[in-house]
Amino acid sequence: MESSSLLNSKQRKQLRRVQKRQKQKNKEAYDKKVMEEQKLKAKQEREIAVKRKNEIETIDRKQKRSKMQILEEQNRRLQSMVIQYEEKVDELKAYKK
Where is the composition biased (Basic and acidic residues) (predicted)? Predict the structure, then answer.
């Protein structure tokens, strides 16, 4: 009897060791899976952040262009007004003479 209970005890210990190793392997596999998911999520977040940054820069460039176009148009109008003013001044000078 004692030999069979000793054997059972040895078998139980061995079974516990095997179960413990399997549990550790499962935990490591789960941790690895979680880590990979976190890496993938971080990569996706970085890609989204880069896309947003590029979109914002594109919008800023478009706004700068449109502001520049508005300023150029205002400049043309002002130059036209200056030319008209100078022509009127010349007409008035000619009329005075």
Answer: 25-35
pLDDT for 62: 78
As to burial, measured by CB atoms within 10 angstroms (0-12 exposed, 13-18 middle, 19+ buried), residue 29 is exposed
The whole-angstrom separation of Cα 57 and Cα 43 is: 21
Q: Answer whether residue 84 is part of any domain.
A: no
Report the number of distinct structural domains present in the chain: 1
| Residue ranges making up the domain that contains 25 | 1-70
Residue 82 counted as domain residue: no
**pTM for the structure as a whole:** 0.49
C-alpha count within 13 angstroms, C-beta hemisphere, residue 55: 6
CA dihedral sign of residues 21, 26, 27, 28: positive
* Tokens representing residue 58 in the block: 């594109």
**pLDDT tens for each residue of 70-91:** 889 999 999 999 999 999 998 8
